[in-house]
Design brief:
The chain is mainly alpha-helical and about 325 residues long. It is built from 14 helices and four strands. The strands form two sheets. A two-stranded antiparallel sheet has the order 1-2. A hairpin with a 6-residue loop joins strand 1 and strand 2. The protein is globular. About 35% of the residues are buried.
Length: about 325
């Protein structure tokens, strides 16, 4: 298990290095003037000259890349002389549009995106796995057909449509919940949950539909395996056969999807956060795209890549727990 974990960690470092190289090339090498892109749309000539000094564009390309990568792990000083600014670890750049380090902007918004992603993930896993397992165990019955038709219908609904229908039906018509306004968990856990329930549901409806279909097909395939028939022949209780042997082995494809989906949502759900007015990373990213704030776009890109890679590492380690054959 230790050797397996070390191999996966080495692969993760390699992928993150490759991602850093690709993003550096896209944001610093390909643009005709990276300083103008980083400064944003409204930028004076004096400010543009100061940004060029800050970004070190007069340095050789290899030195710029080294400063870029080393700054992520150790921090670095951006610019020199009277324009010098210390960008602390992990330095993902400096937003000249907001006059603030990109990492500080991200850490201010990250709790909102994390609350949205984790809460929605709990809902869609519970609903999706439950519906998929029931449909697989009752394959061909009316229950199976109803659940799968409902899953297809839910999967065809865009997130923005589901979100707007929830706002109209639950908030405006029924008045059951307030319009979502993010409240930190530490301030009031009850208000935190009630204000995020609608965004959770908007995301969970779509993802639960996809997970129910995936878990159904995985469970049908797993329940036909010889070791499942052997467990039944030994007289094991149906609950033990389904949960301990069937569901555990059938979860491996679901874990793959879960790692990708959760990693992407942790870096911000742009549409959901914009519709519900949540000040998360996704909304920050949308604002950066509108303003042409290149350092923030770069920072969110790196953060999203890191979340997805780390989530896949966690999934690989869970594979080894769920299925010991993976360790070989």
């Amino acid at each position: 298990m230790i050797r397996y974990t070390l191999r996966r960690l080495g692969a993760v470092l390699g992928v993150l290095t490759a991602v850093a190289a690709v993003t550096f090339t896209i944001f610093y090498v390909l643009p005709s003037d990276p300083a103008a892109a980083a400064c944003g749309k409204a930028c004076s000539a004096e400010r543009l000259a100061a940004i060029r000094a800050h970004m070190g564009l007069d340095q050789p390309l290899w030195r710029q890349f080294w400063d870029f990568v080393s700054g992520i792990f150790t921090g670095r000083t951006v610019g020199s002389g009277q324009y010098a600014l210390h960008c602390r670890f992990p330095c993902l750049g400096y937003s000249y549009e907001n006059s603030e380090a990109v990492w500080d902007l991200l850490t201010d918004r990250l709790p909102v995106s994390a609350s949205l992603a984790v809460g929605a993930a709990v809902l869609w896993l519970t609903l999706g796995l439950s519906a998929g397992t029931v449909a697989a165990l009752r394959r061909g019955t009316l229950t199976d057909r109803v659940l799968m038709v409902g899953a297809v219908g839910a999967a065809s609904l865009p997130v923005y449509f589901t979100a707007m229908m929830l706002i109209y039906g639950v908030v405006r018509v029924a008045g059951l919940l307030p319009y979502p306004q993010y409240v930190p968990f530490g301030d009031d856990p009850g208000r935190w949950a009630s204000n995020l329930l609608l965004p959770w549901l908007a995301l969970a409806v779509l993802y639960a539909a996809m997970y129910s279909r995936q878990s159904r097909s995985s469970m049908i395939e797993t329940m036909a395996e010889p070791y499942i028939r052997t467990a039944r022949a030994k007289g094991l209780p149906r609950r033990t056969v389904v949960v301990k042997h069937g569901l555990r082995a059938g979860m491996t494809p679901v874990l793959t999807l879960f790692g990708m989906d959760l990693g992407g949502l942790l870096a911000g759900a742009v549409i959901t956060e914009s519709i519900f007015g949540l000040p998360g990373v996704g909304r920050l990213f949308y604002g950066a795209l509108s303003a042409g704030d290149q350092p923030v776009i770069l920072g969110v890109t790196l953060l999203a890549a890191a979340f997805i890679v780390v989530a896949n590492l966690a999934v690989d380690l869970l594979y080894a727990v769920v299925d010991p054959r993976v360790r070989l």
